[in-house]
Amino acid sequence: GSATPAALEVAHPDSAGSGRRPVSGRVPRRLLGRLGVLASLVWACAPADDATDLDAVTDEVEAVVWRFHAADTARDAGAVIDLLWPEYEMLVDGARLGYAEVAAGSREFMGSVDVFHTEWSDLRIIPLSVSHAISAFTFRDSIITAAGELIRSQGPTTLVWERRGTTWKLRFGDADHYGIAD
C-alpha cells in the first residue's frame, strides 16, 4: 500500500515571502477519514429542487431513525441489518467496521442480552439533498446481559442516510460509548 504522511503541511497566512509557511501538525487519520466521507457525500449529493423537498427528507429520515430505534430496542438484529446498505461502514469507539462485521456483531450482541433499553435524545436531522441526510443524537443505554451483568453507557451517534429509489438505509455511522458511573 501507499505510505500515509505523518503530518500534513498547512499554509499559514502570516509568514513572509509567499505569504505562507509550512506548519506541521499531526492530523488523526480517523478525523481525516470522517471528514473525507462527509465531504464526498456533500459534493456528490444532487441539490434539492426546493425547501419543500428538504422538509420531506427530514420527515422521511426521522421516521426511519425511529424505526431503527424500535428494531434496536426490540433486539431485532434482522430489522437492524435490513436498514443497512451493503456498502455500510461504521466507526464504533474508534474501530472501523464493514457491513459483514456489523451484521455479525448485531446478531451476536442481540443474542447476548436479556434487556436492551436505549433512550435517544437531541435528535437532529440534516438533509443534504433529496437522497442524502445526516442524523445525530445522544444515546443512553442500559443493558442486562444473559449473564445478569448491567452495562450502562452514553454517547453521541451520527448516521449518514442514503435513499435509493424510495428506500432510506444507512450508508455510514459513528458511535462512541462512554461508561456511566453508578
Q: Would you kindly provide a written description of the structure presented here, covering whatever features stand out?
A:
With 182 residues, this protein is an alpha+beta fold. The chain has 2 domains: 1-44, no CATH class; 48-179, Roll (Nuclear Transport Factor 2, Chain: A). The chain has helices spanning 29-44, 51-73, 77-81, 99-112, and strands at residues 8-12, 21-25, 84-92, 95-98, 113-127, 132-145, 150-164, 167-175, 178-179. Strands 3, 4, 5, 6, 7, 8 and 9 form a 7-stranded mixed beta sheet that branches. A hairpin with a 4-residue loop joins strand 6 (132-145) and strand 7. Residues 1-27 have low confidence and may be disordered.
Give the overall shape. globular
Largest sheet: 7 strands, mixed
Q: In total, how many beta strands?
A: 9
Order of helices and strands: EEHHHEEHEEEEE
* Computed Rg: 20 Å
Name the CATH architecture of the largest domain. Answer: Roll
Give me the CATH fold name of the largest domain: Nuclear Transport Factor 2, Chain: A
List the domain count as a whole number.
2
Helix content: 25-40%
Low-confidence spans? 1-27
Share in β-strands? 35-45%
Structural class: alpha+beta
